[in-house]
Amino acid sequence: MTKRKCRLWWPRHLSSSSQPHSSTFLFGWFVSSAPLEIVVAFVIDEDVFSSIGSDLEGILRKTHKRMPTSLQNRSELSLLGYCSVDSSSNGELHSHRESAEESSHVNGTPCNSAPHTEQNMIKDRSGHWICGCHKVDGFLEQYKTCTQSNSGQLVYGSYVYVSRNLGWIPKLHHMHWDMQVSYNLDLHIVIYGTPRYGGHHFYLGSQHSENAKTISKKPKWVENLSQKKPVLDLDAVILATNCAAAATSFFEEQVSPKRRALWFHCVYMCITIMWQLFAVCVATLSTSVYIILQLLHFLLSYGSDSCVYPTIENLFIRTWKNIHVRCCQISYWPIFLHNNDSRSESCVEYAEKASLRKHSMWLSVVIDMLFGNLYGLALLTHADSVCSLILTITSDITNNWWLISCARLMGNPAGFKLNTELAGVLGTFSLNTIQIWSTLWGSMRFVFILFIKGLAVSGVLFGFTTPASLTVDLITISTTHVSTLHWLISLIYSRQIQATTALWRLFRGQKWNPLRERLDSYDYTVEQHIVGSLLFTPLLLLLPTTSAFYMSFTIINMTIGFICMLIEVAISVIHATPYTKILLWLLRPSRFPSGIWFEIFPVESRDMEVVQESFDSRASRSDILVSCLHSYTYNIGELVGPDFRYLQSAVPRSSISSLVYRVFSGRSLPSPLYNLPFVPGAGLPPSMPWMSIPFKEYWLLCHDAVFACNPLHTH
Amino acid sequence: METTQRRWRKVAYGGMQPGFDDNHTDDTFLQEMVMNANVVKRDMLKVMLDSVSISQYLCIVALVVLVWAHTLNSTITENFLIILDITLVGSGFFILLLTAKMLSFKLLLSYAIKISFFTTGLYVLSPIYHTLTRSISSDSIWALTTSLVILHLFLHNYSGSTIKAPGALENPNLTSNISLNASIVASLLIASRLPSRLLVFAIILFSLQVFLFAPLVTYCLKKYSFRLHLMFSFVLMAITLTCVYRLHKLLFVVLLGLLVFVNLVCPYWLIRIQEYKFEINGPWDEAKLCFNITD
């Protein structure tokens, strides 16, 4: 007889420190893989079992239908087996060979000894092999007649005492599997704490999903080569453990609906009424905000025909996007909150993930509004001083720094040999541009205080990100002259560089082949050489002048761009931070498991020795290993890491050398933030349609969503 | 000793010959060797006469540098320069008409058109050249110019002419192009030091005319009559030496020494070391085409 490996997953709350007083039937899932996995969800006593009677199959089926689909496909909730308690002894294993011989008759004693030789197997009336577990068969007859499924898969065991902290756990003696009986079982008992919502749950870790992403770039046949059948199918087992609590409660609901005490009902009613009131308040408030938003949208849609609307939209592009996102968040939060799928009722892991998704949106809006209110109030109280400070700084920068630097460029800055005429032309042009622009903006000085106040009010109303994006837009608009000048000078500079390099290649007798992207040798005529050298000298000698201007404008432009980029990154970080996750992680880190590990306990071997003496030669012993399932939790870096991974993709890695090359060759710099998804983590797809449901429906939606969050509402 | 051993035959086919190695050579190996097949036997007088053309070009370049120096010193005025330019163009055309054999009206017309384009372009660009190097110190300009002129002399193609005479087959190679570019850039650098735009235009025109057309003119002259060529060279050398003497004594000594070196010392040296020349040619050499491939 071959040794059969099996692993029993036993809930910790079922292993009591005192001896169990009645034998129990085990219910759970069989997951058939290389070692057979037996996941025990709950147990019921013999008397409860007999009282259920023929309803058992129906109840089991209903419970099974409420499990998640992936678990339903993988394994069915069924009766696993029988675990007896030995009342004659104090629970230690010892040989029962004598009682085994006695049990050759039909009315046997409970079978709890490990080896059964084949002589003890007798046939019953219908010709099936049965072992000495006859008492059990009495109960099982009912079960077998009810179920159409093959009830040949059962395990039998008894409770043994392992140690003080582990208590009494079942030890399997033999199992019936596909009309065969296996006695030699290599048993591994894993004790797990039943996952509950709000407590802990188990999760295998996400390494395999990441591997799948990298493999998907290869063709299919390569994938099939590297795919091996996994040795351990722990996915289904962990899913089953996460669903164990739900299975228990569903079963118990149907078996015996709870009757609660009267005082419990009163408290329940009070809390329900209070929650209703709260839901009504929140729904009313958010519906009024929704009405205002719809009104504004209606008014704006009239103005979209004129040409002012797209101009404003293009100028204030970031603010526009931000306000759109904020309005969508305000409109859609009840939908996200209301989102309940049936599978989150049964599996703790799915329930936790669903709750994170549900609460993420409104929490981020609330936190953003909080920051915005703080910022807005602070700015309102100090509006005057901020206004004068900003005006002083800008006029200081323009007059004392930039104009003077332009004037210095027309001289001989830092010993550069600049051509006076060309420097004069470029410098005068840029000086005039700067003067005109700053005069224009200076005349709007009295409007500036109003603008600061508007910024503060928008912070109060819309949250912190809106004034930040307004600031970025305004900086971009007010420095348009810088970017225009930079664009012009970079055009001149890049053309000059390209012409000089082309003429240099001419002197070497080579030509650039743009089709093949390589240098070809080419015979130029004498006239081409003459004209080439006549043009080469002035281009080369005017290059220092152009490059001096280009460098100074590039530095200014890049500084402004850098400041804008910092603010934009801050905005996207505020949008992307998972506040729910962080808050829950701070309160209870066990809700975020990242992997599992087994703690192995040594089993006292004196049970084994006693059994070994009484073995006869044909039987062999079965090995047992006891361990306990624990989970790792994430630290804060791993927790929020995936949400910020988009930042890595926005800044390309090889950019430093290519950036330097682009600057020196005069090409335009890549703007990394055009690739940045504007609201990466808030769970919104890039283009959300404007919500246009009737107000009454919206009120009902809000009310239902908030009421569903009632803590007593859960099953 | 094997009597059946065949004699070894030098054939290009047939494979291995039995009894001999694959790389067997017999005593007839070196019979077809030819020594010094392409070596021209030189005569001292001939070499000296040939070196006159080198010293002629040297004097032409020296004259150009003289004109530059005088213009920078404001000894020469603009009008003089412009008259000089026109004279040079006229005389060049005249000599070409007299001496060239395959000269057609069409070719002359194409030359005239090119020259007019060229002159117009120079006139338009001369304000740019006028202020090009104003911020660079004079020492850098003199150093750069000197090195460029030396580079030009070093890489110049003394055997032909840059602008192709009608009927010439040679393509300009890289070194002759580089020398041309060096001379043009040197003249531009010098021109940017001058005080007025018209001077700039005139000096560039003058330098370019000389550098581009002087080889062609002297080539045509040489082909027409060798005696005329010799006379012209000696007259040129005398004028150059006189003018340089008037300008700077040291430079005169240098130029004189250079001319003597080129005309007298180098031929003697060449003849002396000619006897050590040992060239081996044989059937083992690469095959060379003895005809030109033309389309």
Automatic annotation (TrEMBL), chain A:
Keyword field: Membrane, Transmembrane, Transmembrane helix
Biased composition (Polar residues): 106-118
A single cellular component GO annotation: membrane
Any one Gene Ontology BP term: GPI anchor biosynthetic process
Basic and acidic residues: compositionally biased ranges: 93-104
Keyword Cell membrane appears in the UniProt entry: no
Domain of life: Eukaryota
Protein name per UniProt: N-acetylglucosaminyl-phosphatidylinositol biosynthetic protein gpi1
Organism: Ambrosia artemisiifolia
Record lineage: Eukaryota, Viridiplantae, Streptophyta, Embryophyta, Tracheophyta
TrEMBL record, chain B:
Pathway: Glycolipid biosynthesis; glycosylphosphatidylinositol-anchor biosynthesis
One GO BP annotation of this record: GPI anchor biosynthetic process
UniProt membrane topology term: Multi-pass membrane protein
InterPro entries xref list: Plno_GlcNAc_GPI2
Any one cellular-component term (Gene Ontology): glycosylphosphatidylinositol-N-acetylglucosaminyltransferase (GPI-GnT) complex
Key words of the record: GPI-anchor biosynthesis, Membrane, Transmembrane, Transmembrane helix
Record localization: Membrane
Spans traversing the lipid bilayer: 47-68, 80-100, 107-129, 198-221, 228-247, 253-271
Pfam assignment, any one: GPI2
Coiled-coil positions: none
Membrane as UniProt keyword: yes
Predominant place of localization: membrane
Superkingdom, taxonomy of origin: Eukaryota
Family: Belongs to the PIGC family.
Protein name: Phosphatidylinositol N-acetylglucosaminyltransferase subunit C
Natural source organism: Ambrosia artemisiifolia
Taxonomic lineage from the root: Eukaryota, Viridiplantae, Streptophyta, Embryophyta, Tracheophyta
